[in-house]
Amino acid sequence: MSSNLSNSELKNAIEMFKIQQIFKKTFVDFKPQTKIFISFLIPLVVGFIIYSFITSPITQIIVFSIIALLSGILIYSIGNNYAEKWGIVTAFLVGLFYWLYVFIKNYRKQQADLDIGKKNFICNPLGVCDIDGVKGPYNGEEKYIFNPPSKPDEKSEYIPNNQFDIRISDKFTYMFWIKIDYSKWINTNYYGRDKIILMKGNSIESSDLAVWALPVNEALQFDIGTNIPNQLVSLSTNFSFDKWIHYTIVVNNKVVELYKNATLEKSALINGTISLKNTPLYLGTTPSNNPEYNNFPGQILYLSYNNSNLLPTDIYDIYQKEYDNISNVAEIINNNLNDKENDKENTSNNCVNSPNDESSPNDESSYKD
C-alpha cells in the first residue's frame, strides 16, 4: 500500500526542513557556553509568554509541555558532541522545571480553592468519612464528633467554622439525606417537641441556617437568617417515615429554594439581605446545648455545603449518584444500625445487674426459673 504526497504537502515539508537546517547552522557554530545559555533561556521565555497570556493552569501545563517537547528535540540537535549535548539538555531542563513548578503550583492552588468552596461531611455510608471521621450515617440521638482521620488531635462537637467558605456572602447550598424513625418519632420523648437537626451559627436567632424537625406537623422546617433581627425566612415540607429522603436548600441573593428528592418544593423571596457568618455548624444540638431541642429520631448521610447556588441539573446529578449509593447499601446500613441498637440494649440490661450479682448475662443459671 503506497501513499503520495501532494505538491503543497511536499513543499511544506521541504520548508520545515530548511528552517530546521538554518536554525541548526546558526547555533551549531556558537560557543558551548552560548548554546547552554540559550538552552536555559528558551523555556524561561516560552513559560513567561504562556504565563502572561493563558490564565487556566491546566491549559498552561498542556501548552508548555507540548512546546517544551518540540523545543527540546530541536535544542538537542545543536550539540556537536556528547558533553556539549549533556550541558545543553541540563540547562534546558532547569528552565523547563522552573515553569512546570510554577504552573503545577497554580493548578494545585486552584483545586484547593475549589475544595474550600465545597465540603462533604458524613460522606461514607459504610465506612469512615475522610473529612470529619464519622462512621456510616450520623445518628441524631448521639453526640456528633468532628474528628478528621488525617488530624486525630483535632476533635470537636461541631463542624468548625474553617470548614466553610463564605467569600460569597449571599449564596450557599446545603444538601443532606435524612431518615426519620417512625417508632421513635411518636415516642413521648420526641412527639410534640421541636428538635434541631442542624444549625449553622452561634445562636438560634442569628444562625445562617437552622433545620428543625416538627413532630406535630410531621415536617422539616428550614429557617434562613437575614440582616433583620428575628426575621427569618422559613420553608417547610412534609416527609415520609423510615425512608431516606434528600433535601436541598439553595440561597441565591434574595431567592430561597427548597428541593425534595431533587424536585423543587417551595421557593421564597428574602425580605432584607443575608450575609454568611464565620460560625460553626452543629448537628443534633443547639449552640447552647438546650436539652429541649437536642437529639432527633433519625439518621443523616451525605451532608454537603457549597458556597454557591447549585443549579437544578447539578442537584439532580448529585441526588442520582448518592441515591444509587444508598440504594446499593441500604440493607447493610439498616443492619448496622440495628446492631448498634441491640448493643445499646444489651449494655443497658447489663448495667441493671448489681455489681455484687455473681451471675453473668450469659450464665445459664440466670435463665432458669
* CATH-level-2 architecture of the largest domain: Sandwich
**Mean pLDDT level:** 82
DSSP, total strands: 12
Strand percentage, roughly?
Answer: 15-25%
The tally of structural domains comes to 2
- The proportion of residues forming helix, as a percent range, comes to 25-40%
CATH first level of the largest domain: Mainly Beta
Largest sheet: 7 strands, antiparallel
The termini sit apart by 96 Å
Rg value = 32 Å
Q: Poorly predicted ranges (pLDDT <50, ≥5 residues)?
A: 344-369
- Can you tell me the overall shape? elongated
- Stated plainly, the CATH topology of the largest domain is called Jelly Rolls
What does the model show?
It is a single chain. The chain starts with 6 loop residues before the first helix and ends in a 17-residue tail after the last helix. It is elongated and about 95 Å long. α2 packs antiparallel against α3, α2 packs parallel to α4 (82-117) and α3 runs antiparallel to α4. By secondary structure, the chain is an alpha+beta fold. It has helices at 7-28, 32-53, 57-76, 82-117, 182-185, 312-352, and strands at 118-121, 138-139, 171-180, 195-200, 209-214, 219-224, 233-238, 245-252, 255-260, 263-269, 281-283, 298-306. Strands 1, 2, 3, 8, 9, 10 and 12 form a 7-stranded antiparallel β-sheet that branches. Strands 7-6-5-4-11 form a 5-stranded antiparallel β-sheet, with no helix packed on it.
